[in-house]
Design a protein that fits this description.
Blueprint lengths: L2 H7 L10 E7 L4 E8 L1 H8 L5 H18 L7 E8 L3 E9 L3 E8 L1 H9 L5 H5 L1 E9 L7 E8 L3 H12 L4 E10 L8 E11 L31 H10 L4 H5 L5 H9 L5 E2 L3 E2 L1 E2 L5 H11 L2 H7 L5 E4 L6 E4 L3 H5 L1
Helix pairs in contact: 2-3
Length: 333
Amino acid sequence: MTDSFLSAMGLDRPETGDDAVVPFTLEKLDTRGRILHLGPSLDAILTRHNYPAPVARLLGEAVVLTALIGSSLKFEGKLILQTQTDGPVNLIVVDFDAPDGMRGYARFDHDMVVKWAEEGRTSPADMLGKGHLAMTIDQGAHTERYQGIVALDGNGLEEVAHTYFLQSEQIPTQVRLAVAQMSMRGDHRPRWRAGGILIQHLPENGMARMADLPGDGNFDNPDTSDTAFEEANGWAEARSMLATVADVELADPEVSPERLLFRLYHETGARVFPAMPLVERCTCSADRIEDMLATNFTDEERGDMAVNGEIEVVCEFCSTAYRFNPNQFNLKH
C-alpha cells in the first residue's frame, strides 16, 4: 500500500486510542459511519455501581450505542437512550451530552439476575427482556423534544438499533457492539472496555442509488414489504464486510479504529476524519438538585426527607452525595 494512497484516505496518522470516536466514509460504497473504542471512561461507569457482569455488559452496549448515535449531533444538546422492560435489567438510562459527555445507569432485580445466570440466560437480550426503548433528543430550553420509540421483544440492542432507524428514519443501518472485561499486565483487576461501529447507507449529495425502503422498513411485514426491492450493491458489500468482525477484534485495544477499518475496507477504501474525544461526565450539580427540591416538594415533604437534620440526595449516575439543610429553602426561595 503506497504512502500516497494512505494519505488520501486519511490513514497516515497516529492511530486513535481509547475514549474517542472516528467518523469515516466508504465513498465507493455510498456509506458513512462512526467507529469507537471506550476504555477508562466505560470502566468508570460500569465499576462505580459494582454491577454483576451480565448487567454491566448490557449497560456497556447501551453506552456504546448512545455514543455512536449522539456523537453525530451537530448542536449543543443531549441524546437520551432509555429502556423499560420486564427483564432482570428493568431500566437503563444513558445520556450523551454533546459534544463528548457520557453517563449511564442501570436498575436491576438482583434475584432475577442470579436466577437467570444459574439457568445460563446471561446474554444482553436475556437481561433486557420485553418492553420498549426510547431515544430522545433534547436541544434545551425553548425547544421541543424529539422522541422515537421501538419495541423490545427479546432482541439485543444491535437488532433494536437496526429496527429503530428503519422505522423512524428509513435509513439502512448496521451496528456492531462489543463489550468485554480484559486483564492487562500489571493491573490488579480486569477492566471493562468496548468497541462499536455504526454504518449507514447515505449517498453523497442525497443522490440515492437504492430504492426507498418498502413500507415502514419492516421486510417481514407482508402488508408493506416490497418483493421487488433490491439492496444497492455497495451497501450490501459494506454490510457483509461489517458482519465479519468478531467481538474480540472490535474490543481489542491493539486494534485501533484505523487499523480495523483498513482490515475491513482496504479494497474499496475508507476515508477517516479527525477523532473526537469522549469522556465520562455527569451533569448533576448541587444547584440543580437544590432547585429540584425547592420546586417539586413542599416544606412538609422536605422536612420528612431529612435525616438527622439533613436531606441527602445521591446521584444515580455518578453516586455523588449532596446534602441540604431543609431550612435553607425558606431562606433562599
